[in-house]
Design a protein that fits this description.
CATH topology: Amino acid/polyamine transporter I
Strand content: under 5%
CATH superfamily: Amino acid/polyamine transporter I
Radius of gyration: 21 Å
Shape: globular
Number of domains: 1
CATH class: Mainly Alpha
Helix content: over 70%
Order of helices and strands: HHHHHHHHHHHHHHHHHH
CATH architecture: Up-down Bundle
Largest sheet: none
Distance between the termini: 42 Å
Number of helices: 18
């Protein structure tokens, strides 16, 4: 295994240090956040808020913070070495890691794309009152995502993603504001950790589900698209990721607050399968037709943004993996990960077609839950590799290595997400 890295040989040309603007949300971090916020986050936040009110809000904040730690870790690795996380694993970890990740990536792709197409189909059926059936809505979204990624390029993709973020943020946050009450209890739920009897699994689900899993790796490739490289970009990248996961936390808290008012306060029970349609129905009763419409649009925008993010970013992973397995030189690997390369486009075709048979199973929620289980198994692997790469692998850059606090957090994340993954698998078997 290699023990040294030459950043100058592998890193793209860096642009001048970028300036972070909270209002412009100009960086790729927001796209990572939108990609990570999907149907699983909405369902988990809804059911937790419906069953336990506001007392589990702290778990959403913790989950978003943990994903910030992981994303900052892979970004810092790339700024220091010029390598993506995949390239780092290939260069510095045993060969079996490449085989494991390749197999996992295929399984994850089928699970996540099936979940996202079913969720977008569900969102479209909800918006159109059933005029567009859920299976056909799923097929249309998958095909549109493929066409848009091929024709829109990164610039068009970035613009549409930010538009969807604005729609989902405005729709869900305004519903939360219009139904908000009990501010003291809500603040207490965010600041004072509490685990009511029987809520342990929901705590783990909220912490584990918020903010995505393998899609965190997308930040490496979107950094390259934005030409973010070199130690001078560290401050911007940290701010960019911070803004992204602040939005993630706000969105998750808003979902739970809405569910608290719609179900918990009124003593109405809700299950995972009922979460989305019942939420729209209850908001219609509380806020009138605007409530139903706003929530339906917000849910659709959230899952469609997640679908677009996956369709655009996951082919990067396949193309990068192809370059690594073919042992291409660094410059050639960067060429094959461009959106115009043949490996990227073949991977996009696989991402588009793989979920289509699952669109007609008529079990969208079961598919979404399966995706959550598969996704939860990746995070402990990422935490473990960051403990090694950002501590043990030599680099010549002045980008700082992990501090002891970061290492401690990664150990906590590793242990916690192993517990989450094990519990999810046990629940699935049951």
């Amino acid at each position: 295994m290699s023990t040294a890295t030459n950043p100058a040989a592998s890193a793209p040309v860096s642009k001048a240090p970028a300036k972070l603007s909270f209002l412009k949300l100009a960086g790729p971090g927001l796209i990572v956040a939108a990609t990570g916020i999907g149907s699983g986050d909405v369902v988990a936040g809804t059911v937790a808020g419906a069953r336990y009110g506001v007392v589990l809000l702290w778990a959403i904040l913790i989950g978003a913070f943990f994903k910030f730690v992981l994303t900052e870790g892979i970004a810092r690795w790339q700024l220091a070495t010029g390598l993506t996380a995949l390239e780092g694993w290939a260069a510095h970890l045993p060969a079996w890691v490449k085989v494991y990740f390749g197999l996992y990536l295929v399984i994850w792709t089928v699970a996540v794309t099936a979940a996202l197409t079913n969720a977008t189909g569900l969102g479209m059926a909800n918006l159109t009152g059933g005029a567009i059936a859920q299976p056909w809505g799923a097929v249309l979204h998958s095909l549109f995502g493929c066409g848009f990624v091929l024709l829109g390029g990164y610039a068009g993709f970035e613009k549409l993603m930010k538009l969807l973020v604005g729609v989902m943020g405005f729709s869900i946050l305004i519903c939360a504001v219009m139904t908000f009450s009990e501010p003291v209890d809500a603040v207490g739920g965010m600041l004072i950790p509490s685990i009511p009897s029987g809520s342990g699994l929901y705590v783990l689900s909220l912490i584990g589900g918020i903010g995505g899993s393998i899609t965190i790796l997308s930040y490496n490739y979107w950094m390259r698209e934005e030409k973010l490289s070199g130690e001078e970009q560290l401050g911007y990248v940290r701010g960019d990721i911070g803004v992204a996961y602040l939005f993630t936390a706000m969105f998750g808290v808003a979902i739970a607050l809405i569910a608290n008012q719609a179900f918990f306060v009124q003593g109405i029970a809700v299950t995972d399968a009922q979460a989305v349609p019942r939420m729209a129905e209850m908001l219609g009763q509380i806020l009138g037709p605007f409530g139903t419409w706003a929530y339906s649009v917000g849910f659709w925008a959230a899952v469609f943004a997640s679908l677009l993010g996956v369709w655009q970013s996951v082919p990067y992973l396949y193309a990068d993996y192809y370059g690594i397995m073919k042992k291409l030189p660094s410059e050639e690997r960067q060429r094959v990960t461009r959106v115009t390369s043949t490996p990227y486009r073949l991977a996009l075709l696989f991402v588009t077609l793989a979920p289509l048979p699952f669109a007609f199973t008529q079990r969208p929620i079961a598919i979404i839950i399966t995706y959550t289980i598969v996704g939860s198994l990746f995070v402990p692997f990422l935490a473990a590799t960051l403990l090694y790469l950002n501590n043990r692998v030599p680099w010549t850059s002045s980008v700082p290595r992990n501090r002891w606090t970061t290492n401690a957090l990664l150990v906590v994340i590793l242990a916690l997400f192993l517990a989450v993954g094990a519990q999810e698998v046990i629940n699935a078997v049951r």
